[in-house]
Design goal:
- The complex is a heterodimer of chains A (285) and B (208).
- With 285 residues, chain A is of the alpha/beta class.
- Chain A has 2 domains: 54 residues; 201 residues, Rossmann fold (3-Layer(aba) Sandwich).
- Chain A contains 12 helices and 6 strands.
- In chain A, helix 2 runs antiparallel to helix 11, helix 4 runs parallel beside helix 10 and helix 10 packs across helix 11.
- Chain A is elongated and about 80 Å long.
- Chain B is mainly α and 208 residues long.
- The longest helix of chain B has 45 residues.
- The chains are: A alpha/beta (285), B mainly alpha (208).
- The interface between A and B is large, with 60 and 46 residues.
Amino acid sequence: MSDRPAGKDENIIVQLGTLPPSKYFLVHLAGIILMFIPLIYPMGLPVQTSQPVIDYVRTIQNLPEGSVVAVSFGASAALLDEQEAQFLATWKILFSNKLKVIFYSTTEDANIILERHLGTKVKPGDYGYSYGVDYVLLGYSPLGEAGQAAFVQNIRSLYPVDYHGTPLNNIPLMQDINDQSGVDLIIFEYTSCTDVEWVIRQWIVPFNKPALITTLGCCGPMAAPYYPSQIRGFLSGSGAGTEIEVVSGFPGPGAAMSDSKSLGILPWLVSMVFANLAWFMRRSK
Amino acid sequence: MADLLMGLLGTFFIVATLSVLWKDNIVFRFGQAAVMGAATAHYMIMSATSIQSMVLSQMQLLPILGLILGLLMYTRLFRNIAWVSKYPSSILVGVGIGVMLAGTIKGQILQQIGMTVGDIQTALFTTGDSVAILNSVIIFVGVVTSLVYFLFTVEHTGTVGLIAKVGRVFLMISLGANFAGELVWYQTQMIGRLMFIIQELLVPLGLV
């Protein structure tokens, strides 16, 4: 959209491509309406799966039963809609493959999300899991990169007790685990794009630990250079959330979002096309 | 009934936040302040709980030292002793650089260079797949030309200027991909809120 509104003598393309800011809400309104309709009447538009998502699922599925997976969970409630489908499908894959899971939160609100997921949406008990034996919630610790470096060397230095206040030594799953050597796979969730470097520098380079990544759509391009040599697979954004549901066969919120996204993006795409056409038309005069 | 009230409350804050699309207004400002206030309170409680479980319940020397350094950060609030905060800041920067340095050189420079070249070798001599060859060549050209774009010791004219221009195209494509991700992210947030309104309000009220 141009700052200079179209004159009356300019054609319809320039008129549409140079909407004044006071009219922007019309584009947003059209987008909201187009997003809303498929949520009520699903259209079933096709979904293509990508190799990073397929590798993400296969890496988990190929782990032997009873392997230990650490989930560094840096999710944010404010960004949850973008990633919830990824998380729910991941928990289902982990639990259905009978893997031991250590959840640790690196953001203040990650535990709220985990509690809600494991309490109501993907109940570990439904998969025959027992708390402390098959999975554990270590709770929140303000881990930056230095915290990740400490975690791989001494888990108890950061989490002397679990989320419920039980000392780790009293938790069966944690009896023999106090550093990265007890972990077979790290799933690293983050929402700040450059944080991908933390898992590279603290888990992969020094220990060559198999790693998977889940992140926002906008962070995908920064994770991609590390795939497939350093990270085994990654999920970026809600699109990957839909894909992982398809690949794993566990339906969830991603399927419902897919149609809405495909249709709802149209007004903004059309706006961009018209704005560019208007710019070129004005320039050519 | 309680669920319906929560749905109503959630919907109110969604509509309040979205009302800024029309124009800045008192309902938006109220919603914004309420969400910020709740989030700040939550963060403060979580941080205090974390300090309690990691430091105060252990009473070991190193965590207490860390707590003292953290508290010294607050000396910035007092002009006459603000200089004290430079010590914890310096330690933080020093530890941060120390922790990241080794991994950066190997994982983000050496291994990345190795993969950029290795991909071409693998594609040419092992797989022989034409698409893989094309991909690896594009990545190689993208890496080299983008690096040249950030080479400021040589004037960007002639051949160097041409290479830098190609690098700029690759950078623009990369930034475009990032921005597209941002746009879809905002859209997904909107869809998530619409789903919330449908599931928590419209469905219980029997409107859909």
